[in-house]
Amino acid sequence: MTLHMILALGILLLMIIMIMSDKFAFGAPPIFACLLLVVTGLSSVQEAFAGFVNPTVIMIAGFMVVMAGIMKTGLISKVQSSMLALVNKGGYKSYAFLVVVVMLGASLVGTGSTGYYVLILSLISTIPYNKKMPTSKLMMPLGFATNHPLVPFNVALLYGVTYSVLQTAGYTGGLSMTKFAIVNFILSLGFLVWSLVAYRLLPDHPIKEEDSAYDEVAASIEAFTMPAWKECCTIAAFIISVVGMMLMDKLGNAAFVIPGIAGAFLLIINVLDFKEVRDNMNAPVILMTAGVIGVADAVANSGFTAMIGKVVADALGTNINPFLLILIFALLTSTCATFTGSNMGAVFIFAPIAIATSMSLGLNPAAAATAVVVSGWNGGYMPIDGMPAMILGMGKYKLPQFWLFSVPMYLVRIIALCVGASLMFH
């Protein structure tokens, strides 16, 4: 290993440790790492902070603003109303339909939306115990369903991350958003199948006793009071943004700024104020995505990523099944994310290595990149951080009850994800 490799690896590891420690604000460690790249001479200022003018990052930042607007529309309240009606009706068919409704709602807000899963979990927690449909049978499947859009046309965030890691690794073959969306659809189908099978395995116990909960839910539904014309404009801005990003190959550079223009439109018609626009464009996930690009570039330029890829490729041999290769890296990434609570950190550890290994073996690296990135948001079999921890606590589950649902769910999802990535990017 050269000195440049050692320095780049040291800065990468320091950044990962800072991310996983939870002692620093989310998004701060990559910025600090970029500063160290400049100080150590590994990168120029322009190279270290190149992520902040990366077209994909700019696209995601604009889309975050549009997403903030769509969350204010009555679409969310319709999801709430549907859930309450189905819970009151009870039965397996209602359970299945509830899972589908929440997954359809996830189609609007995208994978990994904190606001959406908090909203759904909070809503479930306000529903009184009903023997026909115990809320303990809803908390886990509906909570995890918020991470699985049934119609995954809104995959901008994960697509952007995947596109960025491929670019950073030197892959210029492009990435079809349509194929990427189909992979997510196959993943969601795997989750849906497991949720339907697991219904009888879910425990039956109350999670809330207050009978006034229906009043609370009704009040929350009434809170959505956007004028009809603004709601139509917001939905139109959302649709235009998604269509623009899906036509990236045909529109060229314009596709990267369409979400930003749509966000500016929502500011002009006062759906969002300037503070909301500023906060969403500078959201921690944007700082994280932009910052790690410079670090990943430095590690790749040092030759370390290519060296690791060659070592792993040599260790696995030239006859390894491509599906098995993808599955190994997806399991490593998702497990790392599960135990550390750091999705981005896990992705940026394993994605460059998976891509380099695939390229060394002459395989299409888009398959490995897609599986690794998406798997970072599909661990969750340990209630350590974020949504899994909320599900365990709010559902009043014992750990064995949680594992009975989450461990098989995890395996089904990862296998479905790897099958989808292998089929779409063979």
What does this protein structure show overall?
The longest helix has 26 residues. Helix content is 72%, strand content 0%. The protein contains 22 helices and no strands. About 3% of the residues have low confidence. With 426 residues, the protein is mostly helical.
List the SSEs and their pairings.
Elements: H1 3-21, H2 28-39, H3 45-48, H4 55-70, H5 74-89, H6 92-109, H7 114-125, H8 139-145, H9 156-168, H10 177-197, H11 213-222, H12 228-246, H13 248-251, H14 254-268, H15 274-281, H16 284-301, H17 304-316, H18 322-340, H19 343-360, H20 365-375, H21 386-394, H22 399-424
pLDDT < 50 runs, ≥5 residues: 210-223
> What percent of residues are in strands?
under 5%
H-E order:
HHHHHHHHHHHHHHHHHHHHHH
| Terminal CA distance | 33 Å
Q: Structurally, how many domains make up the residues?
A: 1
Helix content: over 70%
How many beta-strand elements? Answer: 0
Radius of gyration: 22 Å
Count up the helices: 22
Largest sheet: none
How confident is the prediction overall: mean pLDDT?
83
Shape: globular
Structural class: mainly alpha
Short structural summary:
This protein has helices at 3-21, 28-39, 45-48, 55-70, 74-89, 92-109, 114-125, 139-145, 156-168, 177-197, 213-222, 228-246, 248-251, 254-268, 274-281, 284-301, 304-316, 322-340, 343-360, 365-375, 386-394, 399-424. It is mostly helical and 426 residues long.
Please supply descriptive tags for the structure shown above.
mainly alpha; 22 helices; single chain; about 425 residues
